[in-house]
User: Which sequence fits this backbone?
């Protein structure tokens, strides 16, 4: 009888110890977590980042404070390099990623990360981009684009905002110019408002979530979209894939396959597996949480989640593309 009692006590002690361990905070001593993004304030990444910082924290044991950290440059490669290498590999730095597999394959210099070795947490959406033209500028329709020598802005030459515009120029044989060098989407928006550029390839959420009045008042026009299929919000704007033929179409589809990575989270390759498991579980809980989904809807931010495994498979598909095909993609998209 005493032995049985001892076993019960031991079992209870194990259960209590296990509960205490499960309740341990994810980060010790109240340390914050940084959500690192490869762009500056303003634009769609900032909108998503602040939403995720609030709601992901509620799903992580200990409810740590999550702060947004901006690390702009090289189309997101600087932030990717940081997370992959010098960042603390203790789970305190989470990357709000740009399309890193595409950057790895298409950017010749400055890439020090390997997309397949990053530990992906999942994707909360896929980036949907389109050409936004200011209402006072030519180029508001496909016919005008084919005839107007306007100037479009973009970030770096390795950024989708440059690559999509360059592919469009070739697909429709248009006379417009594409200039690079704007550090953030916010600065591109200001340049468009001021008339310094006619427009740029913008993420849908940048307009619908951050500048919805532009849509309501007709201050921006969208003649082309860079998605796999036409968005239901833009039924009359053709996709680049529709406008392309042959290998140009294959290239457009290849770039579109990287769009989920532009709305994904990842941690570095050295973060312990137990920490990664906690973050993946927290991410999956967040994208199903009604409070998160309701706030995203209020902000006009699309949520179409993918699991960590799905994002990993997409990354490997891109980085396994042949050098010959990548060379053709670079040439067509202006990467080299």
Assistant:
């Amino acid at each position: 009888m005493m032995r049985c009692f001892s076993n019960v006590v031991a079992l209870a002690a194990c259960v209590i110890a296990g509960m205490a361990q499960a309740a341990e905070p994810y980060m010790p001593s109240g340390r914050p977590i940084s959500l690192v993004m490869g762009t500056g304030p303003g634009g769609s990444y900032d909108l998503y980042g602040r939403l995720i910082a609030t709601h992901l924290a509620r799903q992580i044991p200990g409810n740590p404070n999550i702060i947004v950290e901006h690390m702009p440059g090289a189309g997101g490669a600087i932030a990717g390099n940081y997370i992959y290498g010098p960042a603390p590999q203790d789970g305190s730095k989470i990357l709000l990623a740009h399309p890193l597999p595409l950057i790895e394959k298409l950017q010749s210099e400055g890439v020090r990360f390997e997309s397949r070795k990053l530990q992906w947490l999942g994707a909360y959406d896929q980036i949907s981009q389109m050409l936004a033209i200011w209402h006072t500028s030519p180029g508001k329709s496909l016919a005008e684009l084919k005839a107007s020598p306007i100037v479009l802005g973009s970030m770096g030459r390795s950024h989708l905002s440059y690559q999509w515009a360059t592919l469009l120029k070739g697909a429709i044989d248009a006379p417009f110019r594409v200039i690079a060098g704007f550090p953030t989407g916010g600065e591109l928006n200001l340049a468009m408002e001021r008339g310094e550029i006619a427009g740029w390839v913008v993420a849908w959420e940048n307009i619908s979530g951050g500048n919805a009045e532009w849509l309501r008042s007709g201050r921006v026009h969208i003649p082309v979209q860079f998605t796999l299929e036409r968005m239901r919000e833009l039924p009359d704007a053709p996709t680049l894939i529709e406008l392309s033929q042959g290998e140009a179409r294959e290239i457009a589809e290849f770039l579109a396959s990287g769009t989920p990575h532009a709305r994904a989270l990842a941690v570095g390759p050295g973060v312990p597996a137990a920490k990664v498991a906690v973050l993946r579980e927290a991410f999956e809980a967040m994208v199903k949480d009604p409070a998160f989904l309701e706030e995203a809807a209020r902000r006009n931010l699309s949520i179409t989640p993918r699991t960590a495994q799905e994002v990993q498979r997409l990354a490997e598909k891109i980085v396994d593309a042949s050098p010959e095909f990548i060379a053709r993609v670079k040439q067509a998209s202006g990467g080299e």
Notes: The domain at 33-126+258-333 is CATH 3.40.190.150 (D-Maltodextrin-Binding Protein; domain 2). Residues 1-6, 8-22 have pLDDT under 50 and may be disordered. The chain has two domains: 33-126+258-333, 129-256.
